[in-house]
Amino acid sequence: MKNLTELPEWQALFAHHQEVANLHLRALFAEDRSRFARFSLESGELFLDYSRNRISSETIKLLTELAEAVQLRQKIEALFNGQPINHTEKRPALHTALRDKRHTPIQVNGENIASIIAHMQQQLHDFVDNIHSKTWKGVTGKPIKHIVNLGIGGSHHGPQMAIHALKDFAVSDLQFHFISSVDKAHLNDVLEQIDPETSLFILSSKSFTTIETLTNARTILAWLRDKFGENVLKHHFVAVTAAPEKAIAFGIPKENIFPLWDWVGGRYSIWSAIGLPIALMLGNKHFEDFLAGAYEMDQHFRQADFSKNMPVLLALLTVWYLNFFGARAQAIVPYAHRLRYLVPYLQQAEMESNGKCIRSDSSHILYATGPVIFGEEGCNGQHTYHQLLHQGQHLIPVDFILIGKMSPSANDHHHETLIASGLSQAQALMRGKTFDEAYQELIARHCSPDEAKQLAHHQMIPGNKPSNVLVMEQLTPRNLGALLALYEHKIFVQGIIWDINPFDQWGVELGKQLLPQIIHRLKHMHTEDETDCATEGLIHHYKKIQDRL
Ligand code: F6P
């Protein structure tokens, strides 16, 4: 493909940007009362208001032309049809097949993956029934009460996020715990909360080589064996992995292993057996709804015109700000405590996918890719970093996520205030406060004209800060599935436009490669293989502290 920035469609956007960059959203809203109607759309129970973006209808036209120019439509079909679009690892990215209600046959390595997915789903289904019906027992004969997920990255964020998001849909009284980092303090905290006789450990690791997960698993296994002897694995451990031989070598019985495959990326694996904790909390029916919501978003993504396509529009807006306005960061602010773990989930999804600098033809990229994603549940962010959004030097587009209706116990004036807070932030970012408005307010508060003039400079707020508002009708399994699929596809579209592979993560590997050498140095100071002086200096400093304790 021609270099992105040389495409006529890119050049047209560049010229258009010069024309519209200085327009103020306040003026755009003042002159067009149909702006909200023009720049909003619905898919299922998700509503997107993107009217507070620095765009006109012409911008959307030019952006969708860019999407056509990079052959997005064909690339979307390649994704769903199982083409090897993860070209650096020579494999497809088929997370969408995991939620395909129609079980469309797709061949991967000579195997119809629709049937192996159906088999895995049946295994998951039966297991959930066994735990709920208390047929599955711990080594001392007691039913399971605690589920402990041992995993990191994609084997952690999704289950942790969904367990908190969908708490109101729990059908069992199981308690869920998560251990991700190798920090022993976390592990100790969890072990203090659980009863070993009634705990089930889910060892979730696609590769079954991840040091944090395996270190935690070995420590817990030793702890359990200490109490109950050798037979504990069968009763207290299950694994979800694409490397079953490694899980078996660890000692996990074959029948306790749920399969995963290399065509499911870690950060796209919530739909697979990695979602086991979610299915255990929700039960099979709700878990199916969760998959169904994602499937509905898949259909919307595949079928809707680009100008009415939610993931495509969100992606194009990110490209618009990142590449034309130079906005390197993006905030995601869910006004919902239940969605408090959505931000780390999306941080991995977006930054591990699109934090890349090499094009598909292996040349170096000269434009920005992958924004820095950050955020925090509303209203907390308002009292921490929103100041910078309003008056800081960076342009940071925001995605606000609101829930229309909460469960009856949370759907009162608290919820009203929460929603109003989100809306007022979006409004404040858009309109800002002029010098004159600030001045008049100060005068009304009996400031002297001189003081008011001085202070008004500090109190004026530029506004013109873009945001999207996504409203989910209710936080249900189905709608959460749709929301996650929406962001997955948004990330995919960006990757296609930037001509990068969103499905590999070679950058993460270097740290994994260097780690064993440093562990070795920490254990055996007097080896020959020294590293660099900074690492050596810190190793010595660490050893000194250890010797002092
Ligand atoms: O962080 C790198 C990574 O490879 C992620 O892509 C993945 O989700 C995580 O590690 C965990 O990997 P695994 O499931 O193989 O333990």
Automatic annotation (TrEMBL):
Q: Which Pfam families match?
A: PGI (PF00342)
Q: Which EC numbers characterise this protein's activity in its record?
A: 5.3.1.9
HAMAP family in alphabetical order: G6P_isomerase
Q: What class of enzyme is it?
A: isomerase
The UniProt keywords, alphabetically, are: Cytoplasm, Gluconeogenesis, Glycolysis, Isomerase
So where's the catalytic machinery, residue-wise? E352 (proton donor), H383, K512
The encoding gene: pgi
What stretches pass through the bilayer?
none
Q: Which InterPro entries match?
A: G6P_Isomerase (IPR001672), G6P_Isomerase_C (IPR023096), Phosphoglucose_isomerase_CS (IPR018189), SIS_dom_sf (IPR046348), SIS_PGI_1 (IPR035476), SIS_PGI_2 (IPR035482)
GO cellular component terms? Answer: cytosol
Q: Which GO terms describe its biological process?
A: gluconeogenesis; glucose 6-phosphate metabolic process; glycolytic process
Q: Please name the GO terms that the record assigns under molecular function.
A: carbohydrate derivative binding; glucose-6-phosphate isomerase activity; monosaccharide binding
Name recorded for this polypeptide: Glucose-6-phosphate isomerase
Q: Which PANTHER family match?
A: GLUCOSE-6-PHOSPHATE ISOMERASE (PTHR11469:SF1)
Any keyword Cytoplasm? yes
> What organism is this sequence from?
Aquicella lusitana
UniProt record similarity statement:
Belongs to the GPI family.
State which pathway it belongs to.
Carbohydrate biosynthesis; gluconeogenesis; Carbohydrate degradation; glycolysis; D-glyceraldehyde 3-phosphate and glycerone phosphate from D-glucose: step 2/4
* Role this protein plays: Catalyzes the reversible isomerization of glucose-6-phosphate to fructose-6-phosphate.
- Indicate the segments annotated as coiled coil, or none if absent: none
Question: Subcellular location, in the record's words?
Answer: Cytoplasm
Q: Which reaction does it catalyse?
A: alpha-D-glucose 6-phosphate = beta-D-fructose 6-phosphate
Q: Does the keyword Endoplasmic reticulum apply?
A: no
